[in-house]
Fold Cardiolipin synthase.
Amino acid sequence: MSAARSDDDPPSLREHLDCEARLNPRQPLMDGNRVTLLQNGPATYAAMLDAIERARSHVNLETYIFDDGVVGRHFSSVLQSVARAGVRVTLIYDSIGTLGVPGSFFDALRSAGVRLLEFHPINPAAKNPRLWRINNRDHRKMLIVDGRIAFVGGINISDTYSSVPSARHAPGSNGDVIDAGWRDTHLRIEGPAAAQFQDLFVETWRRHSDEPLDPSGFFPDPIPSSGHARVRAIGSVYDDQKNPIFATLISAIDHAQSHVNLTVAYFAPDRRLLRSLTRAARRGVKVRMVLPCKADSWAIFHLGRSYYGRLLRGGVQVYERQGPVMHSKTASVDGLWSTVGSANLDWRSMLHNNEANAVIVDRAFARQMNRMFEDDIAVSVAFERRRWRRRSWWLRAQEFVSRLMAYFL
């Protein structure tokens, strides 16, 4: 059931939702959803595996990384088990994201009856050479079970997320533990909006696989109401003329009245996003950003830092979360509008990847988002404009070099 507006929506939110609807005409805002906020790997994996084990009709999984580790083998075992029990299981995985995973890992899934699609194989011989696009990746992280439950967010299937992040580690961009306990955010969505994530999955399969996909049972009708949250799925693909995820976020920032809270894993903004953030701050909106104190990419870490000066001059409050890598991609605006998904605020997500985000319009959920954000702030270091201006020439040099590679990061 669609529900673009509520009588309780403030005028600024109504204006934004009108803009959001124009940007995403195929995905109306759907009422009647229950949204569960999942923090970090252990909680997310437990919820996903529980949903898979309870599946009766089908399981559709789309992921960038599916590692052959403890977590990946557990997921593989459960997927094989439900497939052998008669549940239709379909998996889309990215070729770059699974680089190094042995073919036997996926052969075992195929032998159990799981249907597989390797997105944009690295080997051009494995796909029509005319369609070989090594720079365009499927960065989505989605799971749809029985057409009624959807998971979406930033968490891949990897041992990287298998422990709870701690802020006890020393900070540093190149230093300690970046391979365990990553801080990330995911969602479990139950209700009518699950059909929109199903649409995204089916569209990717049909566009990139030579094998037909029977969608019977994928879209149960009606899907009963499970809660009160309004939800919209937003998907972007690498050949979009205008990226709907970024355009939607910019509209939300432009219409903000009180606050904007952002957690950003990889930050390489374009001029429009920088302008929206600084203009919001200058008109009195409290704009805060939490970024990682280290990253798995030297270049993207310093590229993000190269924009701190402009953000700080514009009144944006910048923090770096201490401890393991922060991989979250979230936003919350004015205590009512939120988004969680796979899209980073960088050129790769903007131009080169397939991404998927959820928009949630719900005060109770926004309160949870704000509490989570304050928890991240509590273990973060704030940046001060004068101190940042005094940073070393070596840091400035790394920022300069990283800017040269921005388009590809």
Remarks:
- The chain is about 35% helix and 25% strand.
- Residues 168-175 have pLDDT under 50 and may be disordered.
- The two ends are 39 Å apart (CA to CA).
